[in-house]
Write a structure and sequence with these properties.
Chain A is α/β, with parallel strands linked by helices and 175 residues long. In chain A, 39% of the residues lie in helices and 19% in strands. The radius of gyration of chain A is 20 Å and the shape is elongated. Chain B has 153 residues and is mostly helical. Chain B has two domains: 96 residues, Orthogonal Bundle (Helicase, Ruva Protein, domain 3), CATH 1.10.8.640; 48 residues. Classes of the chains: A alpha/beta (175), B mainly alpha (153). Chains A and B meet through helix 4 of A and helix 3 and helix 4 of B.
Chain lengths: 175, 153
């Protein structure tokens, strides 16, 4: 029976590898932006088109940038988590309204609650491209010197906020 | 009559189906050709098994526009690709670059082939040593007899 030992071992190893492969999420593309300065933008605010907001306004603070849109289904799922995060006051949350219509975005925030200190309005999705956005919602944690420290593709969950985002924010706040 | 209507409908459907592919060719066909050629090499991040050239996802359209704009501004293919890799990582490339983290990806198949070859060589050698496939004199004699006996009917 020993002659089958090696093929069986190879087969089992292959099964294990395939099993691990099944658990991986192919949508989670590692972002090359982690550890790099947040790309520069200067965009009009959603509520007041005449005012602009830039990532440079946030230098010296740890903050969260959340990319959302009224047409995005998972954003709906994520919204209560963001409301809780904003209400906790642990970290300021800013929104990037991605490829949306201004009135739709505003109506959405009015109906569902507004967790954002400010939402900026990225109508043509250019800033989105600079931030490597490809699946809304996406969330970035940016540190005091404007470096991107964390990126989440897909909706935030209470677990991710508790286990990843908040510990990271605390650590960065101390730095 | 009905047949004509059906044909017309079919033609219309076919036209709309082909009309969906890729972006409308812009004013400059040479530039457009360059855009599409590069887009063939780039992955659409929304529908990950399609190229930027094939995909109709809004993001793919935006990215094609960015590529077109950069080319119009005189950027080389290399610079446009770097621009995208900076934002989306190596994943946007259909041909992964050769570097430390991708060595296994590039040479893994060769390694497997070499391993298979080694196993085969060892087996052949073992078999030879065990004499299993040895042709004896008796065998040769029998073969000669069979050949000499001519056409077996």
């Amino acid at each position: 029976m020993t002659r089958f030992a090696i093929p069986i071992a190879i087969f089992v190893a292959l099964l294990a590898l395939l099993g691990i492969g099944l658990k991986l999420d192919p949508r989670e593309v590692p972002s090359p932006l982690i550890g790099k300065p947040a790309p520069h933008f200067e965009l009009p605010e959603l509520h007041q088109a005449a005012r602009t907001f830039s990532e440079r306004d946030m230098l010296g603070k740890v903050w969260v940038l959340n990319v959302w849109a009224s047409w995005c289904v998972s954003c709906r799922e994520e919204h209560p988590v963001l409301l809780d995060l904003a209400a906790s006051g642990a970290v300021p949350v800013y929104g990037l309204n991605y490829k949306d219509r201004r009135e739709d975005g505003l109506a959405w925030l009015k109906g569902m609650g507004d967790p954002y200190k400010i939402s900026i309005f990225d109508f043509d999705g250019r800033v989105g491209i600079d931030y490597g956005v490809y699946g809304v919602p996406e969330t970035y944690v940016i540190d005091k010197s404007g470096i991107i420290r964390y990126k989440r593709i897909g909706p935030l969950t209470p677990e991710i906020v508790k286990e990843k985002l908040l510990p990271l924010v605390r650590e960065l706040d101390r730095a | 009559m009905r047949r004509a209507a059906a044909l017309l409908l079919f033609a219309a459907l076919a036209a709309s189906a082909t009309g969906k592919e890729a972006a409308p060719a812009a004013a400059d066909p040479v530039l457009e050709k360059r855009v599409m050629a590069l887009a063939e090499e780039l992955r659409c991040l929304v529908c990950q098994n399609q190229t930027l050239a094939d995909s109709n996802a809004p993001l793919a359209e935006d990215l094609r526009n960015q590529v077109r704009e950069k080319m119009r501004a005189g950027k080389s293919d290399r610079e446009v690709v770097d621009f995208l890799v900076e934002r989306y990582g190596d994943f946007v490339l259909y041909r992964p670059p050769l570097k430390a983290t991708t060595i296994l990806l590039w040479f893994g198949p060769l390694l497997l082939l070499a391993a298979g070859f080694a196993v085969m060589l060892r087996r052949v050698r073992l078999r030879r040593e065990s004499g299993e496939a040895e042709v004896t004199d008796a065998d040769r004699k029998r073969a000669a007899e069979l050949l000499a006996s001519g056409d077996p009917k």
